Amino acid sequence: MQARLGIQAAILIPGCFKTCSRSSAHLGAMLYPNFAEVNRPPVQAWDDPCTRHMFRPGRCLCCGFPGRQAMPYRIAATLAAVLGTSLGAQAAPQYRVEMLPGLDGGASFNAVGINNRGDVAGYSENSAGSRSFIYNKDGFSFLPQSGNSSVPVAINNRGQVLYNANTASGQTQPFLYGPKGALNINPDPGNWGMGRALSSSGQAVGNIGDKNFYYDGKISRYVDFDLEGARAAFATGVNRNGVIVGRAMVSGEATQGFIYRNGRASFLDGLSDAYAVNDNGQILSVDGGGYLLRNSDGSKSYLGFSAAGSNALNQRGWVVGNTVVDGALHAFVYRDGQSTDLNRLIAGPDASRWTLVSAADINERGQIVGTGLFDGQRVSFVASPVPVPEPGTWALMLCGVGVIGAALRRRNSIVAGR
Fold this sequence. Notes:
By secondary structure, the protein is of the alpha+beta class. The protein is 17% helix and 41% strand. It has a four-stranded antiparallel sheet, with no helix packed on it. InterPro entries: Ice-binding_C. It comes from Azohydromonas caseinilytica.
């Protein structure tokens, strides 16, 4: 760590322009007068522009830079150490939480999914029924339906929405909404059906009674998983490669997760369910130890909270859900190997007025939609990561400090020469 930091700092901080392969020791001699006495490298030749490097207390013989004039550089190096450590920690970001608006007539806003453009799929509900919509900066766009009830399942980055809606006859049918309108993707529209999951490129899976269907982007067809010993199987997730995951009923009330790829289905050993699969092959699942993320290499990362929706896993391996904290449900997020109560990450003056109860979806930008309480009233929310300076910005800041240090050193040299 010290050697790596020394190299970074020597690159960022002007003063020694003959940086060598021992730049950590070089930096030490540059900043601390007694450094060379306790950490003196042997006199040695190296294959670089400076063929011999020798250090003595307070001065680097490579460039002659004296330690007693190094105070500005000490500041820069300290900043490099602190910022380098904080950037490397990959801590969970803070979030700005916004309340999603209500609808006319007192209908509630129920958020289900969000894509990378910030389009939110949701539904309004009152005593007359429910309606699915897309909400964005342009307002509400309601999806076609002929019956009195519809609920969205997912929205992808193409703006496609999978939703289930009642027809005029009262049957529930799966629809895929896109640029050409709404398409019934039930391979047998004479029977009721339900869409369960939507991929990033428009494939979908669902059930028709005790059968499963797969929509490949053009046509729908029945798919038989043919799992030995399974009484029934239900598809719950699909990715852009046509990989399907789901739950199989094996004996009594026991279930087991399965995966279907390249025309063959197999059980996921040790997993009692599988809820979602992303384009990288990561699977949101559960076993006796709790809810987990199964990586493509078979390793497991336990989440520490419940996450059972097809939207709860994104393409970056981030997961959202909820669990009980001090007797109340709290929304949680898992990202970069760390699970955190979303309520602990709220930024802004209204943070104390929020209790984020559940999280339904997370996009690749880290935006999260879900349900919460604002001043005790149930509302839907969108939580967006608070922007932080990019590593390049930190580097420019450090370089600026270094330039100031170089200017001070030059001034001191001029004063000393008078």
